[in-house]
């Protein structure tokens, strides 16, 4: 793996600096207990009113993975097809206790995604979240009612050989940099 090394000015656990989103997946199976632990970690995320608006639709079988791949953009299909697990992260748009709009549903689902990716990394897996998918087709194929929305599709598995990617994707198979802390915070 070549690319940018990440450094922190402050005492941040290296765990946060080391996780990244590769596209080179091995087709090795994900252990059942690991998969369930990764999903359980996500389910422990905090949420507004403890609504827990997230739902995780897991594609593990060849037929279900083919279905999920069909709603990804072609640019994501070419590499995500090698991931042994694809997960649709879905969120409920209204609160269960009063049926009013939950404008924090995406924020909460994103928090659950953060927990998912960090637990996966802790267990030696890689994840790559994708926004490049056909939302209407995904919602229809997952039989979602209008009260639910697909937020992202996540590829999960072991890191594979980057040389199996296209030349163009191999060039992008690097650890991404981050903006400086000063660019994203305001303390007064």
TrEMBL record:
Annotated source species: Desulfuribacillus alkaliarsenatis
Family matches, as Pfam families: Nitroreductase
Protein name, per record: Nitroreductase domain-containing protein
SUPFAM superfamilies per UniProt: FMN-dependent nitroreductase-like (SSF55469)
Keyword Aminoacyl-tRNA synthetase tagged: no
Tagged with keyword Oxidoreductase: yes
Entry GO MF terms: oxidoreductase activity
Nitroreductase domain mapped to chain residues: 18-76
């Amino acid at each position: 793996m070549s690319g940018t090394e990440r450094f922190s000015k402050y005492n941040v656990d290296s765990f946060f600096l080391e996780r990244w989103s590769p596209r080179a997946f091995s087709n090795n199976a994900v252990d059942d207990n690991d998969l369930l632990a990764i999903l359980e970690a996500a389910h422990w995320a905090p949420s507004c009113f403890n609504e827990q608006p997230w739902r995780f639709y897991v594609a593990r079988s060849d037929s279900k993975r083919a279905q999920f791949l069909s709603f990804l953009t072609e640019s994501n299909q070419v590499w995500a097809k090698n991931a042994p697990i694809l997960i649709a992260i879905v969120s409920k748009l209204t609160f269960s206790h009063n049926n009013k709009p939950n404008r924090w549903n995406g924020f909460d689902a994103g928090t659950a995604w953060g927990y998912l990716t960090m637990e996966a990394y802790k267990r030696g897996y890689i994840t790559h979240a994708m926004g490049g998918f056909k939302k209407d087709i995904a919602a229809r194929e997952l039989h979602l009612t209008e009260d639910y929305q697909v937020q992202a599709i996540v590829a999960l598995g072991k890191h594979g050989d980057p040389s199996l990617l296209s030349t163009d994707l191999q060039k992008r198979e690097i650890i991404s940099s981050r903006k400086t802390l000063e660019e994203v915070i305001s303390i007064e």
